[in-house]
Automatic annotation (TrEMBL):
This is L-lactate dehydrogenase (cytochrome). GO terms for biological process: lactate metabolic process. The chain holds residues 111 to 478 of 504 of the full protein. One of its GO terms (molecular function) is metal ion binding. Its cofactor is heme b; FMN. It comes from Aaosphaeria arxii CBS 175.79.
Protein backbone atom coordinates (compact mmCIF):
# COMPACT_ATOMS: atom_id res chain seq x y z
CA UNK A 1 0.00 0.00 0.00
CA UNK A 2 1.13 3.50 -0.79
CA UNK A 3 2.34 5.38 2.29
CA UNK A 4 0.50 8.60 3.06
CA UNK A 5 2.38 11.79 2.35
CA UNK A 6 3.05 12.49 6.01
CA UNK A 7 5.05 9.27 6.14
CA UNK A 8 7.65 10.74 3.81
CA UNK A 9 10.29 12.08 6.15
CA UNK A 10 13.06 12.81 3.70
CA UNK A 11 13.65 13.10 -0.04
CA UNK A 12 14.68 9.46 -0.40
CA UNK A 13 11.24 8.38 0.81
CA UNK A 14 9.64 10.01 -2.23
CA UNK A 15 11.90 8.00 -4.48
CA UNK A 16 10.78 4.73 -2.93
CA UNK A 17 7.11 5.64 -3.28
CA UNK A 18 7.55 6.90 -6.86
CA UNK A 19 9.25 3.69 -7.84
CA UNK A 20 6.30 1.66 -6.66
CA UNK A 21 3.57 3.80 -8.24
CA UNK A 22 5.07 5.11 -11.48
CA UNK A 23 4.68 3.53 -14.88
CA UNK A 24 7.69 1.41 -15.72
CA UNK A 25 8.71 3.54 -18.69
CA UNK A 26 8.45 6.75 -16.72
CA UNK A 27 10.41 5.34 -13.80
CA UNK A 28 13.08 4.11 -16.22
CA UNK A 29 13.44 7.52 -17.84
CA UNK A 30 13.62 9.49 -14.57
CA UNK A 31 15.78 7.14 -12.57
CA UNK A 32 18.31 5.99 -15.11
CA UNK A 33 21.92 7.06 -15.37
CA UNK A 34 24.46 6.42 -18.08
CA UNK A 35 26.13 3.04 -18.59
CA UNK A 36 26.98 1.48 -15.22
CA UNK A 37 25.55 4.43 -13.25
CA UNK A 38 28.81 4.83 -11.37
CA UNK A 39 28.69 8.62 -11.59
CA UNK A 40 25.03 8.69 -10.64
CA UNK A 41 25.73 6.80 -7.43
CA UNK A 42 28.87 8.78 -6.71
CA UNK A 43 26.98 12.07 -6.98
CA UNK A 44 25.30 11.49 -3.66
CA UNK A 45 28.02 9.40 -2.06
CA UNK A 46 30.67 12.08 -2.64
CA UNK A 47 28.97 14.31 -0.09
CA UNK A 48 29.76 11.67 2.53
CA UNK A 49 33.49 12.21 2.07
CA UNK A 50 33.14 15.64 3.63
CA UNK A 51 32.66 16.07 7.36
CA UNK A 52 31.54 19.13 9.24
CA UNK A 53 33.62 21.04 11.75
CA UNK A 54 30.70 22.48 13.72
CA UNK A 55 31.06 25.60 15.85
CA UNK A 56 29.51 25.83 19.30
CA UNK A 57 28.09 28.68 21.32
CA UNK A 58 26.95 30.67 18.32
CA UNK A 59 23.61 32.41 18.78
CA UNK A 60 21.37 30.45 16.42
CA UNK A 61 18.01 31.33 17.87
CA UNK A 62 17.11 32.94 14.56
CA UNK A 63 18.35 31.27 11.42
CA UNK A 64 18.07 32.88 7.98
CA UNK A 65 18.52 30.56 5.00
CA UNK A 66 17.57 33.09 2.31
CA UNK A 67 20.12 34.13 -0.30
CA UNK A 68 20.38 35.59 -3.78
CA UNK A 69 20.95 33.84 -7.10
CA UNK A 70 21.84 35.93 -10.15
CA UNK A 71 20.45 38.92 -8.30
CA UNK A 72 17.13 37.34 -7.32
CA UNK A 73 16.29 37.00 -3.66
CA UNK A 74 15.21 33.45 -2.82
CA UNK A 75 14.06 31.84 0.41
CA UNK A 76 16.37 28.83 0.22
CA UNK A 77 19.72 28.15 -1.46
CA UNK A 78 18.44 25.57 -3.93
CA UNK A 79 16.47 25.67 -7.17
CA UNK A 80 14.38 23.17 -9.10
CA UNK A 81 16.65 22.17 -11.95
CA UNK A 82 15.50 21.40 -15.47
CA UNK A 83 14.27 17.87 -16.08
CA UNK A 84 12.60 17.00 -19.37
CA UNK A 85 9.22 15.30 -19.85
CA UNK A 86 7.34 16.17 -16.67
CA UNK A 87 4.12 14.58 -17.91
CA UNK A 88 5.68 11.14 -17.76
CA UNK A 89 5.36 11.46 -13.99
CA UNK A 90 2.21 13.52 -13.58
CA UNK A 91 -0.57 14.40 -16.03
CA UNK A 92 -0.16 18.12 -15.32
CA UNK A 93 3.60 18.05 -15.78
CA UNK A 94 6.01 20.89 -15.03
CA UNK A 95 3.40 23.37 -13.85
CA UNK A 96 3.24 21.34 -10.61
CA UNK A 97 6.89 22.18 -10.04
CA UNK A 98 6.17 25.82 -10.88
CA UNK A 99 3.51 26.01 -8.18
CA UNK A 100 5.67 24.26 -5.62
CA UNK A 101 8.59 26.57 -6.33
CA UNK A 102 6.32 29.58 -6.07
CA UNK A 103 5.01 28.54 -2.67
CA UNK A 104 8.54 28.33 -1.27
CA UNK A 105 10.00 31.23 -3.23
CA UNK A 106 12.64 29.19 -4.96
CA UNK A 107 13.56 29.35 -8.63
CA UNK A 108 12.46 26.87 -11.28
CA UNK A 109 14.64 26.19 -14.31
CA UNK A 110 12.38 25.42 -17.27
CA UNK A 111 13.63 22.68 -19.59
CA UNK A 112 13.68 23.20 -23.36
CA UNK A 113 12.09 19.76 -23.63
CA UNK A 114 9.32 20.25 -21.10
CA UNK A 115 6.05 18.37 -21.58
CA UNK A 116 4.07 21.53 -20.94
CA UNK A 117 4.69 24.33 -23.38
CA UNK A 118 6.99 27.11 -22.25
CA UNK A 119 4.08 29.55 -22.13
CA UNK A 120 1.93 27.22 -20.04
CA UNK A 121 4.72 27.10 -17.49
CA UNK A 122 5.26 30.86 -17.53
CA UNK A 123 1.50 31.36 -17.19
CA UNK A 124 1.43 29.09 -14.13
CA UNK A 125 3.98 31.32 -12.40
CA UNK A 126 2.85 33.73 -9.73
CA UNK A 127 3.55 37.44 -10.09
CA UNK A 128 7.20 38.10 -9.51
CA UNK A 129 8.18 34.44 -9.45
CA UNK A 130 11.64 33.97 -10.92
CA UNK A 131 12.28 31.41 -13.61
CA UNK A 132 15.28 30.45 -15.68
CA UNK A 133 15.44 28.76 -19.06
CA UNK A 134 17.50 25.64 -19.71
CA UNK A 135 18.56 25.65 -23.34
CA UNK A 136 19.37 22.78 -25.62
CA UNK A 137 20.92 24.44 -28.62
CA UNK A 138 19.22 23.42 -31.83
CA UNK A 139 21.10 22.84 -35.05
CA UNK A 140 18.84 25.45 -36.56
CA UNK A 141 20.00 28.63 -34.82
CA UNK A 142 16.87 30.46 -35.91
CA UNK A 143 14.90 28.08 -33.71
CA UNK A 144 17.30 28.65 -30.82
CA UNK A 145 17.17 32.39 -31.27
CA UNK A 146 13.38 32.31 -31.21
CA UNK A 147 13.35 30.28 -27.99
CA UNK A 148 15.82 32.62 -26.29
CA UNK A 149 14.15 35.85 -27.38
CA UNK A 150 10.76 34.57 -26.38
CA UNK A 151 12.01 33.52 -22.95
CA UNK A 152 13.56 36.91 -22.37
CA UNK A 153 10.41 38.69 -23.48
CA UNK A 154 8.36 36.57 -21.08
CA UNK A 155 10.63 37.58 -18.21
CA UNK A 156 13.03 34.69 -17.74
CA UNK A 157 15.96 35.78 -15.59
CA UNK A 158 18.72 33.43 -16.69
CA UNK A 159 19.79 31.42 -19.72
CA UNK A 160 21.32 28.09 -18.75
CA UNK A 161 22.97 26.55 -21.79
CA UNK A 162 23.45 22.83 -21.37
CA UNK A 163 26.99 21.98 -22.45
CA UNK A 164 27.39 18.41 -21.26
CA UNK A 165 25.19 16.78 -23.86
CA UNK A 166 26.58 17.01 -27.42
CA UNK A 167 25.08 13.55 -27.61
CA UNK A 168 22.78 12.04 -25.03
CA UNK A 169 24.28 9.30 -22.87
CA UNK A 170 23.25 5.67 -23.09
CA UNK A 171 20.78 5.05 -20.33
CA UNK A 172 20.22 1.38 -20.70
CA UNK A 173 17.35 1.03 -18.27
CA UNK A 174 15.52 3.63 -20.30
CA UNK A 175 16.42 2.05 -23.65
CA UNK A 176 15.18 -1.34 -22.49
CA UNK A 177 11.81 -0.01 -21.44
CA UNK A 178 11.11 1.50 -24.89
CA UNK A 179 9.45 4.82 -25.25
CA UNK A 180 6.20 3.74 -26.83
CA UNK A 181 3.39 4.38 -24.39
CA UNK A 182 4.27 7.97 -23.73
CA UNK A 183 1.03 9.84 -23.57
CA UNK A 184 2.95 13.05 -23.35
CA UNK A 185 4.79 14.13 -26.42
CA UNK A 186 7.76 16.40 -26.40
CA UNK A 187 5.97 19.67 -26.78
CA UNK A 188 8.93 21.92 -27.01
CA UNK A 189 9.19 24.83 -29.32
CA UNK A 190 11.90 22.90 -31.12
CA UNK A 191 9.25 21.16 -33.17
CA UNK A 192 9.67 18.05 -35.25
CA UNK A 193 8.84 14.45 -34.70
CA UNK A 194 10.89 12.22 -32.46
CA UNK A 195 11.93 8.64 -32.95
CA UNK A 196 10.55 6.81 -29.98
CA UNK A 197 11.91 3.37 -30.64
CA UNK A 198 14.97 3.64 -28.43
CA UNK A 199 13.91 5.10 -25.13
CA UNK A 200 13.00 8.63 -24.19
CA UNK A 201 16.54 9.92 -23.98
CA UNK A 202 17.54 8.75 -27.44
CA UNK A 203 14.34 10.12 -28.84
CA UNK A 204 15.08 13.67 -27.82
CA UNK A 205 18.76 13.68 -28.69
CA UNK A 206 18.06 14.60 -32.29
CA UNK A 207 17.33 18.17 -31.21
CA UNK A 208 20.80 18.88 -29.95
CA UNK A 209 23.66 20.40 -31.96
CA UNK A 210 26.92 18.54 -31.33
CA UNK A 211 28.94 21.24 -33.12
CA UNK A 212 28.25 23.80 -30.37
CA UNK A 213 31.56 25.30 -29.19
CA UNK A 214 33.18 28.20 -27.30
CA UNK A 215 33.00 30.16 -30.55
CA UNK A 216 29.23 30.30 -30.21
CA UNK A 217 29.22 32.07 -26.84
CA UNK A 218 29.56 35.62 -28.25
CA UNK A 219 26.54 34.95 -30.44
CA UNK A 220 24.43 34.09 -27.37
CA UNK A 221 25.72 37.23 -25.69
CA UNK A 222 24.65 39.22 -28.74
CA UNK A 223 21.07 37.93 -28.81
CA UNK A 224 20.14 38.24 -25.13
CA UNK A 225 20.55 40.42 -22.10
CA UNK A 226 19.75 37.53 -19.77
CA UNK A 227 22.72 36.35 -17.72
CA UNK A 228 24.31 33.34 -19.42
CA UNK A 229 25.26 30.29 -17.38
CA UNK A 230 26.96 27.17 -18.71
CA UNK A 231 25.29 24.08 -17.29
CA UNK A 232 27.39 20.94 -17.17
CA UNK A 233 30.93 22.24 -16.63
CA UNK A 234 33.13 19.46 -15.22
CA UNK A 235 36.65 20.74 -14.61
CA UNK A 236 38.61 23.75 -13.40
CA UNK A 237 40.05 24.64 -16.79
CA UNK A 238 36.61 25.11 -18.29
CA UNK A 239 35.44 27.24 -15.37
CA UNK A 240 38.40 29.57 -15.93
CA UNK A 241 37.62 29.63 -19.63
CA UNK A 242 34.00 30.47 -18.83
CA UNK A 243 35.16 33.47 -16.78
CA UNK A 244 37.31 34.59 -19.69
CA UNK A 245 34.36 34.16 -22.05
CA UNK A 246 32.45 36.61 -19.86
CA UNK A 247 29.53 34.40 -18.87
CA UNK A 248 27.82 35.08 -15.56
CA UNK A 249 27.82 31.59 -14.14
CA UNK A 250 28.53 27.90 -14.38
CA UNK A 251 26.70 24.88 -13.07
CA UNK A 252 29.17 22.17 -12.14
CA UNK A 253 27.16 19.13 -13.12
CA UNK A 254 27.34 15.75 -14.78
CA UNK A 255 23.65 15.84 -15.71
CA UNK A 256 22.63 13.65 -12.81
CA UNK A 257 25.01 10.92 -13.97
CA UNK A 258 23.11 10.57 -17.24
CA UNK A 259 25.89 11.56 -19.60
CA UNK A 260 29.55 10.55 -19.24
CA UNK A 261 29.81 7.68 -16.80
CA UNK A 262 32.74 8.01 -14.37
CA UNK A 263 32.66 11.79 -14.77
CA UNK A 264 33.39 13.34 -11.36
CA UNK A 265 30.77 14.44 -8.87
CA UNK A 266 30.11 18.18 -8.84
CA UNK A 267 31.04 18.58 -5.18
CA UNK A 268 34.53 17.17 -5.90
CA UNK A 269 34.95 19.57 -8.80
CA UNK A 270 33.69 22.47 -6.69
CA UNK A 271 36.35 21.80 -4.07
CA UNK A 272 38.96 22.29 -6.77
CA UNK A 273 37.30 25.16 -8.60
CA UNK A 274 36.80 27.64 -5.76
CA UNK A 275 40.46 27.77 -4.65
CA UNK A 276 41.49 28.25 -8.30
CA UNK A 277 39.08 31.17 -8.65
CA UNK A 278 40.19 32.72 -5.35
CA UNK A 279 43.84 32.37 -6.33
CA UNK A 280 43.15 34.61 -9.31
CA UNK A 281 40.82 36.95 -7.45
CA UNK A 282 38.03 35.83 -9.82
CA UNK A 283 35.58 34.49 -7.23
CA UNK A 284 33.24 37.46 -7.72
CA UNK A 285 33.34 37.40 -11.50
CA UNK A 286 31.20 34.30 -11.77
CA UNK A 287 28.48 32.53 -9.80
CA UNK A 288 29.13 28.84 -9.29
CA UNK A 289 26.28 26.36 -8.87
CA UNK A 290 26.33 22.61 -8.56
CA UNK A 291 23.80 19.87 -9.05
CA UNK A 292 23.64 16.09 -8.80
CA UNK A 293 22.83 13.85 -5.87
CA UNK A 294 21.68 16.59 -3.50
CA UNK A 295 19.24 14.86 -1.16
CA UNK A 296 19.85 16.37 2.28
CA UNK A 297 20.25 19.86 3.63
CA UNK A 298 23.71 18.82 4.78
CA UNK A 299 24.59 18.29 1.10
CA UNK A 300 23.42 21.81 0.33
CA UNK A 301 25.32 23.26 3.29
CA UNK A 302 28.55 21.59 2.20
CA UNK A 303 28.24 23.06 -1.29
CA UNK A 304 27.57 26.55 0.07
CA UNK A 305 30.45 26.27 2.55
CA UNK A 306 32.78 25.45 -0.33
CA UNK A 307 31.59 28.53 -2.24
CA UNK A 308 28.60 27.54 -4.37
CA UNK A 309 25.87 30.19 -4.70
CA UNK A 310 23.23 27.50 -4.74
CA UNK A 311 22.45 23.95 -5.76
CA UNK A 312 20.05 22.40 -8.23
CA UNK A 313 17.83 19.48 -7.30
CA UNK A 314 16.27 17.30 -9.99
CA UNK A 315 14.93 13.81 -9.40
CA UNK A 316 13.60 14.28 -5.85
CA UNK A 317 11.04 16.84 -7.03
CA UNK A 318 10.10 14.67 -10.00
CA UNK A 319 9.51 11.76 -7.64
CA UNK A 320 7.53 13.87 -5.17
CA UNK A 321 5.42 15.18 -8.05
CA UNK A 322 4.88 11.75 -9.58
CA UNK A 323 3.85 10.20 -6.27
CA UNK A 324 1.75 12.95 -4.71
CA UNK A 325 1.40 15.89 -7.12
CA UNK A 326 1.71 19.40 -5.74
CA UNK A 327 1.35 18.39 -2.07
CA UNK A 328 4.34 16.10 -2.58
CA UNK A 329 6.52 18.84 -4.03
CA UNK A 330 5.38 21.18 -1.29
CA UNK A 331 6.29 18.68 1.40
CA UNK A 332 9.66 17.89 -0.17
CA UNK A 333 10.53 21.58 -0.07
CA UNK A 334 9.24 21.96 3.47
CA UNK A 335 11.35 19.00 4.59
CA UNK A 336 14.41 20.64 3.07
CA UNK A 337 13.56 23.90 4.79
CA UNK A 338 13.27 22.19 8.17
CA UNK A 339 16.47 20.24 7.63
CA UNK A 340 18.30 23.39 6.53
CA UNK A 341 17.29 25.37 9.59
CA UNK A 342 18.12 22.56 11.98
CA UNK A 343 21.50 21.83 10.45
CA UNK A 344 22.45 25.51 10.30
CA UNK A 345 21.87 25.58 14.05
CA UNK A 346 23.84 22.41 14.58
CA UNK A 347 26.89 23.59 12.66
CA UNK A 348 26.72 27.03 14.28
CA UNK A 349 25.72 29.40 11.49
CA UNK A 350 22.80 31.81 11.66
CA UNK A 351 22.83 32.95 8.04
CA UNK A 352 24.18 31.91 4.68
CA UNK A 353 27.00 34.46 4.71
CA UNK A 354 28.54 32.66 7.68
CA UNK A 355 29.01 29.44 5.73
CA UNK A 356 32.66 29.05 4.75
CA UNK A 357 35.27 26.33 4.11
CA UNK A 358 36.54 26.30 7.70
CA UNK A 359 33.25 24.63 8.68
CA UNK A 360 34.28 21.58 6.65
CA UNK A 361 36.86 18.84 6.78
CA UNK A 362 37.48 17.99 3.12
CA UNK A 363 40.49 15.74 3.65
CA UNK A 364 38.46 12.76 2.43
CA UNK A 365 38.07 14.23 -1.05
CA UNK A 366 40.30 12.74 -3.71
CA UNK A 367 41.86 16.13 -4.59
CA UNK A 368 43.98 15.69 -1.46
C1 LIG B 1 17.63 15.77 -16.38
N1 LIG B 1 18.59 16.75 -16.58
C2 LIG B 1 18.47 17.61 -17.65
N2 LIG B 1 19.35 18.63 -17.83
C3 LIG B 1 19.24 19.48 -18.87
O1 LIG B 1 20.06 20.38 -18.99
N3 LIG B 1 18.20 19.35 -19.75
C4 LIG B 1 17.27 18.38 -19.63
O2 LIG B 1 16.35 18.30 -20.44
C5 LIG B 1 17.39 17.47 -18.55
N4 LIG B 1 16.48 16.47 -18.39
C6 LIG B 1 16.57 15.63 -17.32
C7 LIG B 1 15.60 14.66 -17.13
C8 LIG B 1 15.65 13.84 -16.01
C9 LIG B 1 14.58 12.82 -15.81
C10 LIG B 1 16.70 13.97 -15.08
C11 LIG B 1 16.77 13.11 -13.85
C12 LIG B 1 17.67 14.93 -15.27
C13 LIG B 1 19.70 16.93 -15.63
C14 LIG B 1 19.27 17.82 -14.48
O3 LIG B 1 19.11 19.15 -14.88
C15 LIG B 1 20.31 17.79 -13.35
O4 LIG B 1 21.60 18.01 -13.85
C16 LIG B 1 20.26 16.49 -12.55
O5 LIG B 1 18.97 15.99 -12.51
C17 LIG B 1 20.76 16.69 -11.14
O6 LIG B 1 20.85 15.48 -10.48
P1 LIG B 1 19.73 14.92 -9.46
O7 LIG B 1 19.32 16.07 -8.56
O8 LIG B 1 18.63 14.42 -10.30
O9 LIG B 1 20.48 13.87 -8.76
Amino acid sequence: RMPILEQCYNLMDFEAVARSVMKKTAWAYYSSGADDEITMRENHNAFHKIWFRPRILVDVEKVDISTTMLGTKVDMPFYVTATALGKLGHPEGEVILTRGASKHNVIQMIPTLASCSFDEIMDAAQDGQCQWLQLYVNKDRKVTRRIVEHAEKRGCKGLFITVDAPQLGRREKDMRSKFSDVGSSVQSSSGGEVDRSQGAARAISSFIDPSLSWKDIPWFQSITKMPIILKGVQCVEDVLRAVEAGVQGVVLSNHGGRQLDTAPSAIEVLAEVMPALRERGWQDRIEVYIDGGVRRATDILKAICLGAKGVGIGRPFLYAMSAYGLPGVDRAMQLLRDEMEMNMRLIGASDISQLNPTLLDTRGLSMH
